[in-house]
Amino acid sequence: MSGSGSTRAAATPGLRPAAPRAGLAARLVQGATRAAAAIALSAAVASQPLYAQAAAPPAPAGGAAEGNAAEVLFRFPVGGVVTSGPVVAAGRVWLLSDSRTMYTLTVDGVAIGKRALPARRADFIVGDAYGRAAVSDGATGLSLINKAGQEAWRVELGAAPGSPPAFAPDGRLYVSAGGELSAFAPNGRRLWRTRLGAAPSSAIVVGPGGGPAVGLSDGRVALFHPDSGIAAELELGSAPVALAATVDRLALGLEDGRIVVLEADEGSGALSSAPGAPDYAAAPRLGSRPVALAAASDAVYALGADGALLAVDGVGAELWRRGGVAPGGPAALAAFDGRAIVLTRAAVTSYGPDGSVYRSLTLRNAVSMPAIAPSGAVFSGGADWILYAYRFERPLEAAPGPEIAPLDLEAIDAMAREEAFWTVAPWSDDAAMERLYDIEKSLESGTIGMESRRAALYLSAVALGRMDAPFGSGRAPTGPAPRGPLPRVYACGLLGRMGLPWAVPALVEAFMNDPEPSVRAAAAYAVATIGLDPEGRALGAFAEAAGGRLDGATAGAIVDAIDGLYRASGALDDRSGMLALLRIAGGDYARDIRSKAEKALSRVSRGR
Questions:
Q1: Rounded to two decimals, what is the model's pTM?
Q2: Is the pLDDT of residue 57 over 90?
């Protein structure tokens, strides 16, 4: 394969971001409707140059062989030379050009948003699982940009980040700056902060259990719990300079060339050699310092500064190695099941399970490091101010990443039973409020740490009214417990302030089932404060509730919650939100509520 990157695509004045295509809309564009979507897209190209340009003729069946012309999936004009990115995550592509504009598009080439930035180059662009991106902002700032290119929040770190940050699967963000490691909730609230004790020697990755892992210059690797600054550490005798992780493994590339695979204990997070792994001293070695590491389900791949590529299995035993795969210059590495992908500005090459070359794509006039999506498409910024997308590989499967355990009703009820064992009247309003005040103080002072999960379980039990009566007497006999709405309202508010999406299912349950309008409204507001609705549960619940007659407080809270979710995300992936707004705007409500719903519906439907 070969890629040009030298043909300038026609551009037309009047740029306008396209409306997001996701959720229900994406599900509708199936089968016969794809032809209609293609026609609409072609028509849009004439007036909206942010859309993909026409693709080249299809490659021969089975993929183009080396030396054949690469199939161009689309061309995307970016108004200048690409200076940062492209970065691919969650079906999105982000990049910054020297026109000081950051673009967001789908991997299919549909424009999602663009944003003017003060600088021509960003130190990092990192995408999360929800179509948003963290971008460096000045020397010491970080901004979270939503799907529409709008700033959702900004934080001043006080020092320049030592490496790109990392997103956990639930949207929390880990950042290293000024010798400290910090965790932020998806809504920008700082969860915890801790001193590292030594300078970082590697970029942060999300390790087993969902907490951040980082190599340190004194030869240690540290794996932190996602809810606190407490770390499990291991001394390795050489600084880890590259890390990669799967659900239960943490792979390290050490400065002395060793490639080590560690296992994390599910309970404590303690790191140790996996069963059957070679001794640390006898671990396979690259002949040079590792520059990149990537993990798949079946192997871990390491790329050395001398261009050597090494594959090891799940316990760290050598599988194969090849030399000269990336001779000189910067290089990146990606891993999928059965594939290792080596990327440089000049070429992209994929290697099979035995180390044999599967495909190679030559890039001409590329000005930035290319990126590959699980679809198999390669994205490269050309010197002609165009982002090119090339067909390269078949669809690829990435290894399941680390996870953070969600909250569930069984765990919530277990917390309620535990409180009943130790407390005389855990279901009483006074006892609940006293405990809620303690949790609030911990949140405000940033000292909640390891107690955050227990606190979230307790808050969920109170918000749902599932507290038990004193030990031995069963559940409180009548209605929700605590009985008064104030503790339940307060618990919903605190769950929102924690800012973590694990609380959304509990808040939706409270919204749907609590008999008090004030509690239902508080649950809706709390979802908006979190700013994420990962599975569309809240939007679906809002639409269902709006199908009947609501009290004014709940109707107003639904409108504010949907508007808040939209502003935080930049799009509503589930049309249920628009349906709820439409029902309220046309319902039998006070004029101010209907007017508010109409304005929110206008913002959401326009996509801005």
A1: 0.84
A2: no
